[in-house]
Amino acid sequence: MKHWFLFALTVLYACNDSHNAQQIVDATILASGSNKLSNSKVEFIFRDKEYGVEQKGGTYEMVRLWENEAGEVVRDEVTNEGFKREVNGQKVEVADSMAFKYTNSINSVIYFALLPYRLNDQAVNKEYLGKESIKNNEYHKVQVTFNEEGGGKDHDDVFIYWINTDTNFIDYLAYSYKVDGGGMRFRESYNPRVVNGVRFVDYVNYEPEDKNQELESIGQAFNDNKLKELSKIVLANVLVETY
Hints:
Layout (H helix, E strand, L loop, with lengths): L1 H31 L7 E7 L2 E8 L2 E9 L5 E7 L2 E6 L2 E3 L3 H19 L9 E11 L2 E10 L11 E7 L5 E8 L5 E13 L2 E11 L9 H6 L3 E7 L2 E7 L1
Antiparallel strand pairs: 1-2, 1-14, 2-3, 3-4, 4-5, 5-6, 7-8, 8-9, 9-10, 10-11, 11-12, 12-13
Pfam families: DUF6503
Protein name: Deoxyribose-phosphate aldolase
InterPro entries: DUF6503
């Protein structure tokens, strides 16, 4: 009887953690205005490339426009039907392996730009890790993992989001990845602005000085100034149209 009681408490605690994580994610989506993006068109410039994503009624179109070294205009498009590329308005054939690479690159940029919008995707698993203080502010820590089915090429990546307990905004995030030899990143948000009711931020991108850094304790490493800055993630000319 005693063992059954302990088992019941364990199950209840796990359910409450899951429930807390879901409630916290729902709150940050609502606070950021990301709930408006299900039927929308968003455009921005990132590292001299123009990006656009349109979502409507379950269909989507992601576009990247840029100029190559030959001065040609390249248009990459990802839809529910797959990937295609045009150069100066003419369709060109792209090997499946490269189409896969380009698709993931475009998807990654748009995923981060629209956060926290996609944190309720079906392939997302959320776990509440408790609270943590960063720079004298208190945060909910929510860990996100992905199912292999529907989780994309990088379904093995693990994310942690620090969600401000007062504002419900994501001020920090971190993730570990396995591609290209693996690694870990920590991002600090800055320059928040609201465009047509949707909040966007830029990020300072860091990596740990310690190669053995654990993801769950990377927030403390940031507090202890044990991360080094790599780059800045800046979105320019953000436009939002909602339907």
